Amino acid sequence: MQSIEERISGLYGQLSERLKQAADFVVDHEIDVATHSLRTVSSMAGLAPSTFTRLSQALGFASYEEMRDVCRARMGRQALSFSERASLLVRNGADDGARSFFEQQSSASLENLGRMERDLNQERLVDVVEQLNSARQVLLFGAFSSTGFMEYFGYLARYFADNWKVIGRMGASLSSAMVGLNDKDVVVVLTMAPYARRAIVAAEMAADAGAYVVVITDDIACPALSHASASFIVPTESPQFFSSYAATLVLIETIVGMLVARAGDSARARIEEVENRNRRYGEFWD
């Protein structure tokens, strides 16, 4: 995608003096354009809203919203704080009422899934599943919003394996969980922007111990990637103020399904035993 600076520089000489003022403001205040409504941006610039609308048309955009979306893509959602993303959410609710939020969220999730399906390295996925299948033990770690998804990953894994463990629960020491790790072990770290310091430390400690480290994250700038044996960059775009985990959840469930298929009858037998125990002790509602 051509950046807003490139688009403006190519057409700058054809703009009127007033549109040049608006263009200069857009280049110098890209984050404000990305995170605020047209009315707010025009007030900050001291120009009429129609000036920015005419600028977007002069630059070849279908609307001001399309020009603003280019500003967002240029700097990336990872550069935005939760509060700045919330500003986008408020703006969308106020200015983009043509589509329901459900449609926006669903569309973003489907686009994330489509991108992951297109871009995911499936040979790497097979290799990671093989490492998980043959590991002496598998440790899972996630912090902040990633915590619950690692808990879910571990919950599913305990149906078919007894050597998986979620670490770092309730602030528990990472060091104690890492003692004794070696190249027969796998550590999976899940972290999305803004990256939790403990997640980076967990990946570093596991790599230093010689373990096979799998990092699941949302951007190549994630610091944990420098410690990864294998990694997956998962799309997380969302109209929400936080990152979407829809594609991440599909990746986790895919890995689980592949592991069960690879384990074969032993996995089926263990899952059956867990189900029977759940029924015997009344954990399932009869």
Polypeptide structure, described:
With 286 residues, the protein is an alpha/beta fold. It has 2 domains: 4-98, Orthogonal Bundle (Arc Repressor Mutant, subunit A); 112-280, Glucose-6-phosphate isomerase like protein, domain 1 (Rossmann fold). 58% of the residues lie in helices and 8% in strands. It contains 14 helices and 5 strands. Helix 10 runs parallel beside helix 13. It is elongated and about 75 Å long.
CATH superfamily of the largest domain: Glucose-6-phosphate isomerase like protein, domain 1
* Poorly predicted sequence stretches spanning 5 or more consecutive residues: none
Strand and helix order: HHHHHHHHHEHEHEHEEHH
Which strand order does the major sheet show? 2-1-3-4-5
Number of strands: 5
Computed Rg? 24 Å
- Indicate the CATH topology of the largest domain: Rossmann fold
Sheet bearing the most strands, described? 5 strands, parallel
N→C terminal distance: 56 Å
* Distinct helical segment count: 14
CATH architecture of the largest domain, by name, is 3-Layer(aba) Sandwich
